Fold:
Amino acid sequence: MTRVTVENVWKVYGDQTVLENINFETEPGSFIALVGPSGCGKSTFLRMMLGDEAPTRGRILIDGVELEDEPSPDRGVVFQKYSVFPHLTALQNVMLGLEFAASPFTGRLFGRTKREARNASLDMLKSVGLTHAVHKYPSELSGGMQQRLAIAQALIKKPKILLLDEPFGALDPGIRNEVHEIMLRLWREEGMTIFMVTHDLSEAFKLGTRVIAFDRVRNRPEEQKAYGATVTFDLKVDGKSAPPQPPADVTLAAAAQ
Amino acid sequence: MTRVTVENVWKVYGDQTVLENINFETEPGSFIALVGPSGCGKSTFLRMMLGDEAPTRGRILIDGVELEDEPSPDRGVVFQKYSVFPHLTALQNVMLGLEFAASPFTGRLFGRTKREARNASLDMLKSVGLTHAVHKYPSELSGGMQQRLAIAQALIKKPKILLLDEPFGALDPGIRNEVHEIMLRLWREEGMTIFMVTHDLSEAFKLGTRVIAFDRVRNRPEEQKAYGATVTFDLKVDGKSAPPQPPADVTLAAAAQ
Amino acid sequence: MRRLINRRPDVASRFGLMILPFVIVVIAYMVASEARLSVNPNDKLLPGWSTISDAIERMAFLPDQRTGDYLLWSDTLSSLTRLGIGVAIATLIGGIFGILQGLIPYFRATFNAFTGVLSMIPPLSVLPILFIIFGLGELAKVMLVVIGIVPFIIRDLALRTAEIPHEEIIKAQTLGASTWQIILRIVVPQMLPRLIDGVRLSLGAAWLFLIAAEAIASDSGLGYRIFLMRRYLAMDVILPYVAWITILAFALDLSLRLFQRIAFRWMYRGN
Amino acid sequence: MRRLINRRPDVASRFGLMILPFVIVVIAYMVASEARLSVNPNDKLLPGWSTISDAIERMAFLPDQRTGDYLLWSDTLSSLTRLGIGVAIATLIGGIFGILQGLIPYFRATFNAFTGVLSMIPPLSVLPILFIIFGLGELAKVMLVVIGIVPFIIRDLALRTAEIPHEEIIKAQTLGASTWQIILRIVVPQMLPRLIDGVRLSLGAAWLFLIAAEAIASDSGLGYRIFLMRRYLAMDVILPYVAWITILAFALDLSLRLFQRIAFRWMYRGN
Amino acid sequence: HAEAKKDFKVAWSIYVGWMPWGYAMDNGIVKKWADKYDINIEVVQFNDYIEAINQYTAGAYDGVMATNMDALAIPSAGGVDSTILLICDYSDGNDVIILKGKDDLADIKGQKVNLVELSVSHYVLARALEKIGMSEKDVTVVNTSDADMIAAWATPDVTAMTTWNPMAAEILTEDNANNVFDSSELPGEIQDSLVVNTQTLKDNPAFAKAMTGIWYETMALMSADDEAATAAKTAMGVASGTDLAGYEMQLAATEMFYTPQDYIAFTEGNLSELTTFVTKFLFDHGLLGQDAKSPGYIGIELADGTVVGDEDNVLLRYTTEYAQMAADGAL
Ligand SMILES: Nc1ncnc2c1ncn2[C@@H]1O[C@H](COP(=O)(O)OP(=O)(O)OP(=O)(O)O)[C@@H](O)[C@H]1O
Ligand SMILES: Nc1ncnc2c1ncn2[C@@H]1O[C@H](COP(=O)(O)OP(=O)(O)OP(=O)(O)O)[C@@H](O)[C@H]1O
Ligand SMILES: [Mg+2]
Ligand SMILES: [Mg+2]
Structure:
């Protein structure tokens, strides 16, 4: 079980401050929903969690140890797009992570190890409901199936932390509901910490155990450059099966810019 | 005020029947919301309304006269993407329709006629709230602003019918609400007939005076090719300011495939 | 009246329109040839059909008196061998450098400007240096083809590689991939079809350089024959050779496209 | 240790890496030149710096004994004039045909296959015919450049034109545009920057054909001089000429790019 | 179709014996003579010798500088009746067979010989081999562009070469290059001539007169022993890419016909024997056309009216009519 500590993190691009003074700590096994207006730095924050970007100031700790400064298998990710590899079938996409680990030189497995990786991957595909599509290429899958595949692909590495950047933003409402259920089940089974960026407040409250909103506090034109977004509210959600009603005191402003 | 009559319309691509036996007639000044699962032929139907495609069988009449077989200024359109011209500023985008009409050879206006077109366009931009962005290029506008621009651009031609293909699908919820209000106001002011395709049932019921759903009735694999989608429900919505609650007897299946 | 932009020819008129410009060219040739031949029956510039078909028979179906070869076929074999080897080498070098240049920042910093400059040098103008380095035999001809097209292939592929969504590279790293594994399992398989596109685009230049090389020092090959025949204005041989090169170029292009479709199904599945 | 793929050189090492391959080439040249000159002090193939700089002075800064011209500049003027006119004509033809071919179904049906075949014909092999049709003056050289690059420009632009979202064309029609107005107000303005891209891509080929044309029939121009000097293996003149051509090619490319940025701001605004 | 015309174009390419044409064009001699006969003459320089002959053959030019051999093989074999109006010079050592490291022609056996195939070099090689009892079968010919001969020589693959000046002179400065045979052993066989279209000539004697006048005035200028001659030769040297010394060296291997009398005397010698060597070579290499059944397939009319070869198919003629006028001061 993993505890993430974000200490006084700032991110500045050139002379544009994007995030300022982000501080929070998560309980092990949290499902954090990150919301906020477009361009406020949610994806930037996830990129820092991934190690793809370094914070300009401050630091991020996992179980008290500073983050590796590049992506690694303990932090899985699912993006809205380009999350799966178009040249591999569903099965190959999921097996890939196992092959990387076991075969440094060729990146491929053979014989018994391959059979094992294959079986593990098929199980994983089954648990996201893709058993019938294991030999299809991503271009042959619908959007919802592609995102389920991306989740399976990330989970097979058993990451301590799973980072989701608007993973369901492009899906139809009905399909979205299905994937939500799968997501919640996997989260409970695997016991990992999840950070999910979303634009949809009801999704945030439906899935998250905690909803954190980023927003700029100072918005006057002359302040635009010097000040970035920070945490404007941070709310624990109890009882995960409660209806997707945002609490009365939360303004919708965070989701609509 | 315009009355649209759809008579026994079929659309077949090769050996794939997409739409079969579509029949309905609209009251003048209707706001028709078209819903249905992905791929059922909503966009195809709009393309037939535009004259970009011809029905395989049946016909579409406007005020009793058969449709022109190519797009013309009496039917405006707003697509989800590519609805505005990237190489023209907002003002130029709106003026374009006036210039086409008045200047067959150069497609440009000069002197007094230009000033008039400019003023009319500025008024139109004001009514969609883009006064401050008239000299910006579309790539400098946010998604919501681009769609408002596309609406302004279509409305300046005062079309009898306005066709919208998921016009707000890519917008954030907050922005979407704003644009809904503008849309409703313009519809009331101009008194035109609107056909809007949407995936969002609440949007359909919020905006539409009538919601029409397309869906396939026969879905067994061997029937896939021979049978297309048809009208599966058709519902008048009274009292446009009612809360966006779908009536109880409407299944959600039409929106979620 | 529908707008011109909305009117589509049906299958029959599409075919008619397609062959129209070819027919016009053929007729124009026939008229011009006729006119010249009526002035000078021995005119070599625009020979008549019978002269051309004699030449085709002589080159393709009768053994050469001196060597006993069927010249068209032996020339084709020489040229295609050179072209094939040259393009293969260029593809290999272009593939490796292109991918590294598109993917690895240090590699890009080192070679980007250099390949940019290289691609601007007209290879024909540095021939003497190429001769010194590669001699004057087959190697030189192959190398001229390689040097002629490799900068383009590198730059094209580097661009394509840089276009791979950053998300994919990040995702691969979160799955534990090393740089080498990313290259091997993610980048190379996705870039192979693009590489074929790049090769297809540079085939025209490859032919050009091959012909230039064969014109400079050779004793066989399609370019050799054309330039030798040019000495005697033997257009009855040159024209069929040009047509033949055009057909070969088409066939090569087509077979690369077919290969791409068959070998990289993932690009064409689904939508 | 971070993965190689994640390591980025800083500004200073980026500069160092960038010039590294150039430095290596220069050193290799110096070593080879030294070696050859120590065997034969009169070696012409890889002349030393002093010989080269003498030649540069002679060609660029001293008037020619015979004509009184400063040869490098008069050659440059001749070549650039030909290249400029040729590329301008090719751009015009390519622009018109490319747009019509990409947009109008009837036009496409007529010319698509034809330009496809044309683009496969190696222009060098039909030189004699070109010279007869266009005479041997400046026109022939200009036309070789035109014929060499125009099929590429047409095909490239036709593809780009066909890529204009169908939605835009429909939208224009609902605004009442005729085919002509669509071309004038929608397609041409959006295709001009693409046309410049196409021209930039074909500049290399344009130089190649210019040099080839000047090699055969000319009495001035950069290509003429290089081929004249090749007869004497005067590498001390050829090498600076090649370098000069490379610089000119770079400058042309750069100025086209700048022009594109300035003239088509809409492409670069926003994201 | 007899028609007099005013505008004439003559093509020339860079070669030692033809440089005077460029000089004459640059220095007003052409214009002077053209004006005298009230016509316009343009003397156009080609970089590529073969292209010049092709253009003439195709009818774009009225005259061209070519060797007798190429005149026969290209325009005449192509049905263009051509007349050698005057011979500028013959090669007297300009065409050389060079061996690398060997100094006996017989050593060429079995080697690859780089040369411009079917050109005068090829002819020289064939004649040289014939003289020592070998034939082309004893060597392998590799077609090599004349512009690249020097660079080619520098590569290890190349061990034998036949080429002409200035490339030959340049190559012979190398230590390992040996002249084993040159055209001074084939005197008069390789004639560098002004070839004009016979029909044009018939219709426009003024054109022939002007060309003849231009040539011999220029010859007189450059053969004199004064500063003007040195200046002219310097200019010609520079125009051909070398300098005065280089040009003088090339002239030394060239038998220039500085006066009309030189030319007339030459045609009265063994010209008919010399032409049979050439026709045999062309016939052997299939260059007289596919219909040729014998070396005499194309008739060649000599200056005295006798015909070598087929009298019914005369397509190449020598004339001394205009040279004679020049000799008589009648131009
Ligand atoms: N590499 C970069 N260089 C400079 N600025 C950047 C960079 N990446 C992001 N930004 C800027 O940082 C800000 C935050 O971007 P980010 O993508 O994190 O926003 P977001 O909250 O994910 O928005 P959205 O909801 O639209 O995805 C934006 O203003 C963006 O322009
Ligand atoms: N030009 C065409 N040729 C062949 N089939 C087509 C063509 N256009 C559309 N189709 C097919 O017709 C069906 C309906 O397509 P359409 O785009 O109208 O669906 P839609 O209801 O708009 O779906 P979505 O909600 O995803 O936009 C699809 O199965 C599609 O593959
Ligand atoms: Mg984001
Ligand atoms: Mg649709």
Remarks:
- The first helix of chain C runs from residue 11 to 39.
- The two ends of chain C are 34 Å apart (CA to CA).
- The pocket of adenosine-5'-triphosphate (ligand 1) is lined by residues A 13, 18, 36, 38-44 (CB under 6 Å).
